[in-house]
Amino acid sequence: MLSHSRCLTRNFGRSLSAIRQGNNGLARRATAALSASHSITLNNNVKSDPRSSVFQIQYFRTSVAHREEVVTVNTPAFAESVTEGDVRWEKAVGDTVAEDEVVCEIETDKTSVQVPSPAAGVILELLVPDGGKVEGGNALFTLRKGAGPPKAAEAPKAEAPAAATPPPPSAAPPPPPSAVGPIPTTMPPVPPVPAHAMDTKPVSAIKPTAPAAPAAQAEGANKGARTESRVKMNRMRLRIAQRLKEAQNTCAMLTTFNEVDMSNISEMRKTYKDAYLKKHNIKLGFMSAFVKAAAYALADQPSVNGVIDDTTKEIVYRDYVDISVAVATPKGLVVPVIRNVEGMNFTDIEKAINMLGEKARKNELAVEDMDGGTFTISNGGVFGSMFGTPIINPPQSAILGMHGIFDRPVAIGGKVEIRPMMYVALTYDHRLIDGREAVTFLRKIKSVVEDPRMLLLDM
User: Fold this and answer.
1) Could you mention a single GO BP entry for this protein (predicted)?
2) Given its phi and psi angles, is residue 340 left (phi above 0), alpha (psi -120 to 50 degrees) or beta?
3) pLDDT by residue (tens digit) across 69-101?
């Protein structure tokens, strides 16, 4: 037993010494002898028999694959009313992306959904072509985690050898000595030219340089060219066209008009705009007055705030006011919703409009921001529109169209005065709203905007 222990200790010492010296062959032979001397299991580990007191050896390995993991990014879940969208790629294969950097946008019929990178890394493969259709949960692209070499840093390295090829300026041969003497400080007298040496040809005899006929012909060809281009309609534009056509086919649309004297509201805005901006850090506009006036008029005429449910053949009257405000974006017209306007004041409405407008400009509107809405206001006056008839935003029953403010002569107290006037138009579904309700609603808006004190007096 003692000799066996000495042999086991000697073999273990040889194995440990070989491992420390890096001699793999000797280590294997010593380990084999150690295994023959005692019952040992080798599976990336050298373990001792539980009955002996021999030490335990473990081998550890690290792998770069754990640091450069490849992940597949899927399409995020859409809202309930959205089933699919079109992919528009912002990055290409081989591009280095940072964490949360936008890789692509998915254009749906209501808004665009941005897909960020879950981690910093390099894009390996795009699994959907540009413009391809995807549904929620579909695979979009694969990403190798880990910061790849930035493209901006590669360019100087590539240019460095090219810049080193030309010889340095010091190696260039010196220029030949000039035969020109020193520059004189005074001009010598010019000798007279003999008469026979002068050119007597008329100016018309001098031949001009090469004519620019080819360039003129090219310009004429470009001016006469009749070219055209085709661009695929995005999903938002297609959806807008579909909804507008549905409104024409479904609703019995009728439009009534009126004009609003903007003198009082303009004077109020001019008087308090600086103090308002200083206190609330937001500008006071005209839209808040019309939104509040619309909420006030909708409470007075609930049929304008209602809707026809064609499925159940019922009229739905709402006791709340959610006003959609039309906002023009490069991709199309969007209508984010200001909810519970009946309980808001001017400041609350201005802040809500500013927040929704900022999200629309940054293309950050979600589907939830545009769902619902019981009434819509469209302000074409910001583009200089003087007059127009808006189209109902289904499934709503009415829409108010604002237009530009222009100075016009109007009769005031039997006299002609120049006032800032705005035409307003109300398009409504005549199946639900009669002319009396529509005209009364529009006159209520006119009276409240012309004299905001009516809101305080609840008249």
Assistant:
1) L-lysine catabolic process to acetyl-CoA via saccharopine
2) left
3) 888 888 887 766 677 888 888 888 888 999 888
Tell me whether residue 430 is one of the annotated catalytic residues.
Answer: yes
Closest C-alpha to 333, from 111, 131, 114, 133: 111
Domain spans, the chain: 71-144, 245-457
Asked if 147 and 121 count as a contact pair (C-beta separation under 8 A), the reply is yes
Provide CATH code, domain 245-457: 3.30.559.10
Please check whether residue 427 is in contact with residue 389, taking contact to mean a CB–CB distance below 8 angstroms: yes
Q: Which of 38, 95, 348, 430 is catalytic?
A: 430
Is residue 434 part of the annotated active site? The answer reads yes
> Strand 253-261 to strand 415-429: parallel, antiparallel, or no bridges (unpaired)?
antiparallel
Tell me which DSSP letter residue 336 carries. -
Q: Which two tokens stand for residue 183?
A: 């520059």
**Whole-model pTM?**
0.59
pLDDT digits (tens, 9 = 90+) for 276-292: 999 999 988 899 999 99
Q: Which fold has domain 71-144?
A: OB fold (Dihydrolipoamide Acetyltransferase, E2P) (2.40.50)
Question: Can you spell out the DSSP letters for 206-234?
Answer: SPP----HHHHHHHHHHHT-------PPP
**143 DSSP 8-state letter:** E
Burial of 75 (0-12, 13-18, 19+ CB in 10 A): buried
Considering the candidates 100, 309, 310, 434, report the single residue annotated as catalytic.
Answer: 434
